[in-house]
Amino acid sequence: MNAYVDLHCHSTASDGTMAPAEVVQLAKRSGLSAMALTDHDTIGGIAEAAEEAKKVGVDFLPGIEISAEFPAPGTLHLLGYGVDPQSAVLLDLTKQLLEGRDNRNPRMVARLNELGIRVTMQEWEAESGGVVLGRPHLAKILVQKGYVKTIKEAFDKYLGTTGAAYVDKERLGPQRAMELIRESGGVAVLAHPIQLRTGNDAELDRVVKDLVDLGLQGIEVIHSDHDAAWVEKVGELAGKYGLIKTGGSDFHGRTKEAISLGVANGRKVPREWYEGLVGKIKRRG
Q1: Residue of 96, 91, 93, 97 whose CA lies nearest to 134
Q2: What pTM was estimated for this model as a whole?
Q3: Strands (DSSP E) along the chain, which ranges?
Q4: What b/e string do you get for 159-169 counting C-beta neighbours within 10 Å, with b at 16 or more?
Q5: DSSP count for the chain of H helices, then E strands
Q6: Is residue 144 within 8 Å of 119, Cβ to Cβ?
Q7: Nearest 5°: phi and psi at 206?
Q8: How far apart are CA 152 and CA 168, in angstroms?
Q9: What is the Cα–Cα distance from 80 to 94, expressed in whole angstroms?
Q10: pLDDT in tens, the chain (285 residues)
Q11: Full DSSP string of 261-283
Q12: Distance CA 147, CA 154 (A)
């Protein structure tokens, strides 16, 4: 069996550009033996991806990525692995998360309009093609209309956390987010710790310890934003606090063209990390 997997990727169910089944097909073509679909705030792509994974012979884990409260300029994202897509808890959670986005999005469009950028909610909805309206979809519209040259420029100027049109969405506290992941049958993992933007290693250690005390069970060691030093640093934290190691590319398709499925900053995620995650999920069950 192939020795590599990808445990962090996105589809058109949130802000990726490939349908869930297409992401699975790409995983097969890329020689991966297993994958997890981790769309933002939704499990809308899980059924399609799971069905395609059975057809093509790729082991599959249902997942979700949830944004939690955290002081700016950092962001805290939690990955929920092995969640039950039929869980009433999870369905209520995703409804709440999507409502938070629905409340935020028109305000971002209004701010862009105030800045002289003519975009509409209807255009954003048409570009998304899915349940979740992600900022990358809106960035693409700004590129198409000539307001910016690249998606990165759209985020830097307007849509990123320091952008002129940015509006934050309502977020759950980290403890509540992890509780809901556990209540829906899943295991809670800290995504891309580098994006916490902690000031130093001691602060990173403190944040991870606090999350462990609240119920964190794993940490993403390999990620496209992590260089060798970060992989080593996060790996040491995993050992120190008894956390499962996970990893993934954070593949989104054309909105992050430099990222290939199955490869995270030149590294691949070993199959044994998938096995360890599955084992943890089974022990929870």
Answers
A1: 97
A2: 0.91
A3: 4-6, 34-37, 59-68, 76-81, 187-190, 218-223, 244-248, 269-270
A4: bbeebebbeeb
A5: 10, 8
A6: no
A7: -65, -45
A8: 18
A9: 12
A10: 568 999 999 998 988 889 999 999 999 999 999 999 999 999 999 999 999 999 999 999 999 999 999 998 899 999 999 999 999 999 998 888 888 888 889 999 999 999 999 999 999 999 887 667 888 889 999 999 999 999 889 999 999 888 999 998 888 999 999 999 999 999 999 999 999 999 999 999 999 999 999 999 999 999 999 999 999 999 999 999 999 999 999 999 987 889 999 999 999 999 999 999 999 999 875
A11: TT-BTTB-EEHHHHHHHHHHHHH
A12: 8
What type of residue is 9? Answer: C
Helix (H, G, I), strand (E, B) or coil at 6: strand
Query: Which amino acid is residue 267, in one-letter code?
Result: R
Distances (CA, A) of 75 to 82, 174, 205: 23, 11, 16
CA–centroid distance for 257 within its chain = 16
> Which tokens sit at 282?
């089974």
Strand partners, 60: 35
**Residue 171: how many CB atoms within 10 A of its CB?**
17
Contact assessment for residue 39 and residue 27, using Cβ atoms and an 8 Å cutoff? no
> What is the C-alpha separation between 10 and 167, in angstroms, rounded?
22
Contacts of 282 (CB under 8 A, 6+ apart): none
Q: Among candidates 80, 79, 131, 81, which has minimal Cα distance to 101?
A: 131
C-alpha dihedral sign at 80, 242, 7, 225: positive
